[in-house]
Design brief:
This protein is mainly α. The protein has a single domain, classed as N-(1-d-carboxylethyl)-l-norvaline Dehydrogenase, domain 2 (Orthogonal Bundle), CATH 1.10.1040.10. It is 63% helix and 0% strand. The protein starts with a helix and ends with a helix.
Length: 197
């Protein structure tokens, strides 16, 4: 529950919001469009979880929104964005796998993965230069110049960051590639606005 709802949503908002110019999570929640993205991620993450007696996932989501919005907590988006190679599988890829098997809307996970790939690209088209902080940064940095679904799939497979179940899902990788292409040539804010509207 914590990994998928709190941590998974944290990762998504960090990769998106850092490139929208938001330093802290609390600032993200003051942005109507970005907060809508956060709510969407919490809702879909909850749907991938099995029911637990005595646990109300909707109430947990509401408590997380309050936590993210707390003006007293200065949690930096750039800090949360660190070590994605170690966090993305449990937080995003595994719940995505369950969402696919449950026939749920996978768009929120697709968007989160594209945002992560945009971050590791270190593209400076919409932000100042930044250091990629990850245990395998030297392997993540050379993202293929060809931004097709095939090249992304091949690249992630070679560095072992992709779970086997997704390797042959061409429709999924096509969606990731489409969003990533936008993120690499447009300001992140405009990509988010397009996603939510």
């Amino acid at each position: 529950m914590k990994l998928r709802m709190l941590n998974g949503t944290h990762s998504m908002l960090a990769y998106v919001s850092f490139h929208c110019g938001h330093r802290y999570v609390r600032d993200v929640m003051n942005d109507k469009i970005l907060s809508s993205l956060v709510i969407r991620q919490l809702q879909i993450a909850a749907q991938t979880l099995k029911p637990i007696k005595g646990i109300d996932y909707n109430n947990y989501a509401k408590s997380l929104i309050l936590r993210f919005s707390n003006p007293e907590i200065a949690h930096e988006t750039f800090q949360i964005a660190m070590d994605g190679s170690e966090k993305m599988q449990q937080r995003i890829f595994f719940p995505l796998k369950d969402a696919i098997s449950l026939n749920l809307n996978i768009r929120p996970f697709v968007f989160a993965i594209a945002a992560w790939l945009r971050h590791i690209s270190q593209s400076k088209h919409d932000c100042a230069p930044y250091e990629l902080r990850d245990p395998i940064a030297d392997q993540l940095t050379p993202l293929p110049k060809e931004r097709s679904a095939h090249s992304i799939l091949d690249y992630l497979s070679r560095i072992g960051v992709l779970i086997d179940d997704l390797k042959e899902d061409k429709v999924f990788w096509g969606q990731v590639s489409d969003i990533l292409n936008d993120m690499l040539c447009k300001p992140m804010k405009s990509v988010v606005e397009q996603e939510i509207i």
